[in-house]
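Dear colleague,

Thank you for sharing your sequence with our group. We've completed the structure prediction you requested, and as agreed, I am returning the results in plain text so they can be pasted directly into your records. Please verify that the sequence below matches your submission; if there's any discrepancy, let me know and we will rerun it promptly.
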Amino acid sequence: MAERYRAWLKGLDRRVFDVDGGTVTCWFGPKGASRKHVVRVHDTDDGIRFEATVATARTLDRMVEDPARWAWRRNRDSDLVGFRVVGRCLVAEAVAPLIGLTRNEFLVYLQAVAAEADRMELVLTGKDVQ
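Please find the predicted structure tokens below.
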């Protein structure tokens, strides 16, 4: 499977995506003049994990609510992209199953993780950090 999704990464539209190995910068408008977010793409035993950093320790320390509890509450309302605290960072993630995964579904996962991470980053920090 790794070969198939690596080919999909190489074939991404360079007007919308910058690809560096398994790291993809997703642009939400014209490059250099719009918001963007970085998504890391990894193999798992039975799927592909899409992961993006939403906030670092500095932002989490300023949160009134416990970040893990916030993520848990947010995840109750989401079907595709979830949030979790890893170390001292908040990340957005989704796992696509290997069986039957198409290029279009791959793109849906990639863009959904980028968009949700970017939206939460804006809510928590007020700026475009990643």
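Summary note from our side: Helices lie at 2-10, 57-62, 67-75, 103-125.

Kind regards,
the structure core
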